[in-house]
């Protein structure tokens, strides 16, 4: 989505810029929500597809779907927690090491700042002013080294928030393809087709939402996510159908 000058001008006024930049840095939870939603929908619809392909009853599909939904959602949340925690611990470790280096060899660390900003085009007196300004405050100095030397954000995503976002997105979106199996009076084929439509809508909707947040091509992102989810479900269906043919399951 492109904005005109009239749309962008208010948020670039001095007071608006100051307010925005004064906020504490924080990582976005959108990647965790997208990951959890897509994986939850893939997980449950893959179970539904596999059960339908194998000829299992709707009750079996529903039980397996909910069991996988809770177990995989919890497992994914824990994994995301551990990954986010590991990232934050890595950032903290690098920051501690940089602070230690600043205490031991400040001139060497200033030279690193100098060369980093010389590579950006700063020269002469202006370069020395930049180096002096950045190294006057150790917090600013360390944050600069994190971003410019190690390509790390000063603050990672809160591990608990990452885990909870992933878990709830997984559960909410993943439960959608199971809804037709909880409704009485529908035959097996109708339940599967309804689940197929719901899962397709979830995949497409998540893709569109992700694109809207990041201002990308909405339709293309929706179709791409739909195709990836459909491919996973197709593999599950073929696996169930093959198991039924080979082993007589169902």
From TrEMBL:
Main location group: membrane
Q: Where is this region: Disordered?
A: 1-25
What is the annotated localization of this protein?
Answer: Endomembrane system
Q: Does the keyword field hold Phosphoprotein?
A: no
The residue ranges flagged as biased composition, category Basic and acidic residues, are 1-18
Keywords tagged on the record: Membrane, Transmembrane, Transmembrane helix
Describe its membrane topology: Multi-pass membrane protein
Q: In the UniProt record, does the keyword Transmembrane helix occur?
A: yes
Transmembrane segment boundaries: 160-180, 192-213, 225-247
Per its record, how is this protein called by name? Answer: VIT family protein
What species was this sequence derived from? Answer: Billgrantia sulfidoxydans
